[in-house]
TrEMBL record:
Protein family (similarity comment): Belongs to the Nth/MutY family.
KW Cell membrane (keyword) present: no
Protein function: Adenine glycosylase active on G-A mispairs. MutY also corrects error-prone DNA synthesis past GO lesions which are due to the oxidatively damaged form of guanine: 7,8-dihydro-8-oxoguanine (8-oxo-dGTP).
UniProt-listed Gene3D superfamilies: Helix-hairpin-Helix base-excision DNA repair enzymes (C-terminal), Hypothetical protein, domain 2, Nucleoside Triphosphate Pyrophosphohydrolase
Designated name of the protein: Adenine DNA glycosylase
Domain of life: Bacteria
Amino acid sequence: MEFSKILINWYLNNRRDLPWRKTADPYHIWLSEVMLQQTRVEQGLPYYLSFIEAFPTVFDLAEASQEKVLKLWQGLGYYSRARNLHETAKYVAFELNGVFPNNYKELKSLKGVGDYTASAVASICYNEAVPVVDGNVYRVLSRYFDVETPINSTAGIKEFKLLAWELLDKENPSKFNQGLMEFGALHCKPRNPHCESCPFNETCLALKHDKIKELPVKPKKPKVKKRYFNYLVFSSEENKTLLQQRKGKGIWEGLFEFPLIETLESVTSETFISEEKIQDETGVLAANVVLYNEKPVIHKLSHQHIYTHFWLVNSEALNEKGIPIEKVKNYPVPVLIQNFLEESGFEDY
């Protein structure tokens, strides 16, 4: 029995019961695929359900504010996905009258839609014969064919795409692509794959050559940058605080945070900046400053680790930018800030 038939048979008998598998609606499929990029299904599922409830159609998503979209996305990470999702929803709703493109080429022209997402939507929704290659597929193919070319290298992207194309069931690309991704997620796992019960164990070259643990070959990780954040958590006699929105193309674009002073190294109460410096940064005179956490909170991102201190700053009054503390929960914030709010009970002040 050929590879595709074995795979599809495995998929039909082992696939998970997921809501986006009960529809071919491109809005639902596109939403799920964007959310599941660099995200486990277990983590992404609650977000998917929340988005579908809040935005049942692409028009609902398009008409929402960016702050609402980011708030619902809060905690899922890689926030550029959410911003691109919102921009694409507006384009599809207002320029294409709510109708998604029905082929790979036009789907790929949408903002935030790359080769993987375009292939997934085209094959699942329109049964277009285009292969899907994600992390799970890289792992299955590298092991099955014993490929040592590093994944995500220029050569690797071309090689694995070609292998996926050669295996693709051209008559049933939807189930084949979903099956290949699901097989990698559930069976050919990164650690402790189920090789003994694998339907391909007689033809898998990595198993034959005892190289399962060595594949896939990944590029070397870039050096992690260390950054040192000092958040000024203001509270006034009016029960107000200060938040600011992150701008530019750095991390957390569009999210809100407390006024931030970034230093070259971690600082203590004895060496922290003067109250005059706080006033220079915020325009607000601080009555007193207290360090909330002696030990910095370390927030790890893919390419940087953020060492964070929170400084509680009392002030008699805040400027016109002050907002009621109880309204902080309405703003989309990084997980780092959300964890502080929950731990400190700041929102309940």
